[in-house]
Amino acid sequence: MKLQARNNIYNITYSAIILVVIGFFLQITLIKIYYKQIDDGIKTERVIIEEEIEYLDTVPDYTQVFGHQIEVSLLQKPVPYRNHFANVKQYVERSQANELFRQHYFSKNRKNGMGYTICIMKPLSELHKFKRVVMLSISFAFLLLLIAFLGSGYFVNRQLWRPFYKTLDGLTRFNLDAPSTLNFTDTEISEFKQLNQIISSFSQKLKGDYIRMKEFTENLSHEINTMLAIIMSKVELLLQKEDMTEDQIEHFTTIYHVTNNLIHLNNGLLLLAKIDNQFYNNQEPIELSQLVTNHLRTFDDFIRQKNLEVKTELAPVSLLMNRSLAEILISNMMNNAIKHNVPNGYLHINLLQSSICVENSCNDKENEPAGNGDLAFYENKPYASLGLGFEIMKRICRIYDFSLNYTVQQGVYRFEIGFPPKDL
Amino acid sequence: MRILIVEDEKKLAQSILDYLKKEESLECDMAFTYQEAFRRILDFEYDCIILDITLPDGNGLHILSQLKEDKQNTGVLIVSARNSLENKIEGLDLGADDYITKPFHLTELNARLKSILRRRNFNGNTVIHFDSITIRVNEHLVYVNDQLLNLTPKEYSLLMYFVSNKERVVSKESLIDHFWDSDYDQSASNDLIYAHVKNLRHKIMEKGGKDYIRTVYGIGYKLSDQ
After folding, report:
1. What CATH number does residue B54 fall under?
2. Using one digit for the tens of pLDDT, what is the confidence trace for B27-86?
3. Whose CB has fewer CB within 10 Å in chain A, the N or C terminal residue?
4. Which residues, other chains included, contact B144 with Cβ-Cβ below 8 Å and sequence gap of 6+?
């Protein structure tokens, strides 16, 4: 989730809570004021009625005067004093429904000892309308505030976080292989300043380590290969000697074989290290069909040895790759398909714009699926490869975003590498 | 013929020298540094230089450029610990005759050296004699007792490898690396080498040649007329 989006969610949530609380109190207060106004009107009516009863001793039809129901009763006996307001529901014939009224019940004794009661019923039909208006205005205010919040939040954020996004952009474009270093624009915000400083020193250290690592790998390879070359040459010279005992020959033969294996192993590890160190950066368009044809020729001996039926469908596919890596990838793929094939089996190579698929017959028993897949297929290789071939292929595929799939099923082994769609 | 071995690793240089000095036709000098190598090529025109390009005091490729500048007719076999295509291309572009990566088999180095010397000194118009075998290198033709042998390219290449390393033990590994130069199916490669050698032996003996290719138990083969 983006920083901006996350910020908006927090903003909306908090302002919504605050506005709902404010709206709630606002509504209560406004309704109270509304009741007070109604009650004040009723009280004024009551005072007029009281005065008329005290001084004129008449009880006119107030319902007609004030336009709502007023019941006044003059009693011949004293009554207890009452003065209260209440909301009541009453059936109204005109609308044939119960409607809400504000009722004021008032009783008092006159100077002559006689009592009277006044009951004023003022309809509250306006209350609903009032409540709705209040709700609407609060909602409207809420909406306006929200827009204001988000708008200001957006601009403030953009301004405030600008140095951060610039740093992020710089980091995205940071390339260990490029000679340039990370440069950040100046900012006045001390946190960002600190961040940039830390990243700068971090990237410089990383770059230094990376270059040293590359040099180290290169030097190590040189050293190991030189030493292996010495061992190899000395053993080879010894093997040329005529006067060795059988025992000696056997010992030297073993040393020779092991050294030879060590050389292959070292070359494999070296290749892995070089791929990891982005040694193979140069790219050029590679004609894959050409590469496959060339390798079929190289493997010709092995194909004929097992008497394999080879079928190819090669579309003209050109990929931007490093030549060495492309060669290694295709060679490993075909080597596997031939190595794990059965006598008189087949080898089908299908090269499309989107993928290359190698399918071959294989010995099921040899390739029984083992738990975690991956290297299982490659582990029963002879000593020299040690499953490095597959690891190398995986790394190469990772560099170019190729997908890599294989299945072993009922004597059919299928290895497929998918190419990413080309950018137009 | 005179060869210069430029190699900073003295022990390896000594091995190469030990291997080559058994060849009667070759005289070898050694140089362990760039400076020394440079002095030697100015002093003497060698037939071939075995040149390690990673020297402690300079880039071996400069020596190559110097040779070309002097227009010396010297063959150059580059030796490098860096197994990279870029290095190879750069070396061959500068006029090297061949390129070999460390570690290598001495038999392979020897075979390549011989091939360079043949090309340089006789423009490839060499005829090699080995007992009853005659090889016309330029035409890739092989005769046994003056009868033409019908060899496949692999068998021809195998015979050349043996002849270059005659009277020496040639290991199966070096033959595998010679033909396929990487770690393909090891047991299949062994079988293939065995089959090719068997066919070659058979073809030579068919034309009345001796069984020159002896099996050296556990190691490989040896071409010998004794």
Report:
1. 3.40.50.2300
2. 999 999 999 999 999 888 899 999 988 888 888 888 888 888 887 788 999 988 766 666
3. C
4. B132, B133, B134, B204, B207, B208, B209
pLDDT category of residue A375 using cuts at 50, 70 and 90: very low
The answer to whether residues B137 and B27 belong to one domain is no
**Which residue's entry shows tokens 């890739």?**
B140
Where is A156: in which H helix or E strand?
Answer: helix A125-160
Which of A258, A264, A279, A301 is the best substitution to test chain B (most B C-beta atoms within 10 A)?
A: A301
How many structural domains does chain B have? 2
| Rounded Cα distance, A98 and A121, in Å | 13
**Any idea which residue has 């089959």 for tokens?**
B195
CB of A331 less than 8 A from some CB of B: yes
If contacts are CB pairs under 8 Å, which of residues 182-241 in chain A contact chain B?
A: 218, 221-222, 225-226, 228-234, 236-237, 239-240
B39 in the same domain as B13: yes
CATH code for position B159? 1.10.10.10
Domain termination site, one of B122, B152, B173:
B122
Same domain, B14 and B112: yes
Is residue B167 domain-shared with residue B98, that is, in the same domain?
no
**Boundary-marking domain end, from B122, B137, B169:** B122
Q: Which of B84, B103, B106 minimises the CB distance to A263?
A: B103
Task: Tell me how many residue pairs between chain A and chain B have CB atoms under 8 A apart.
Answer: 107
Compute the distance between CA of residue B17 and CA of residue B14 in angstroms, rounded to an integer: 5
Tell whether B38 and B118 lie within a shared domain: yes
Residue among A221, A233, A298 minimizing CB distance to B81: A221
Q: How far is A227 from chain B (nearest CA, A)?
A: 8
Instruction: Give the whole-angstrom CA distance, residue B94 versus residue B71.
Output: 13
Please state, in angstroms and rounded to a whole number, the distance separating the CA atoms of residues B167 and B225: 8
Do B11 and B115 lie in a common domain? yes
Q: Is A119 helix (H, G, I), strand (E, B) or coil?
A: strand
Is the Cβ of B180 closer than 8 Å to some Cβ of chain A? Answer: yes
**How far, CA to CA in Å, does A401 sit from each of A20, A396, A398, A418, B136?**
51, 9, 5, 9, 51
Range of the domain at B52: 2-122
Whether B114 and B142 map to the same domain: the answer is no
Interface contact B166, partner A, CB < 8 A: no
Nearest to A233 among B16, B186, B218 (CB): B16
Q: Are residues B167 and B94 in the same domain?
A: no
- Condensed to tens digits (0 to 9), the pLDDT of residues A276-287 reads 777 788 889 999
**Which 3 state secondary structure label does DSSP give B109?**
helix
Chain centroid, CA A103 distance in Å: 62
User: Could you give the angle at the alpha carbon of A326 between the alpha carbons of A322 and A331, nearest 5°?
Assistant: 155
CB contact under 8 A, A264 and B185: no
Partner B, chain A 364-383, Cβ-Cβ below 8 Å: 382-383
Q: What is the ipTM of this complex?
A: 0.88
Indicate which of B19, B102, B215, B226 best probes the interface with A, i.e. most A CBs within 10 Å of its own CB.
B102
Regarding pTM above 0.90, the answer is no
In angstroms and rounded to an integer, the radius of gyration of the C-alpha atoms of chain B is 18
Out of A222, A305, A385, the one facing B54 most closely (by C-beta) is A222
Structural tokens at position A49: 């009625």
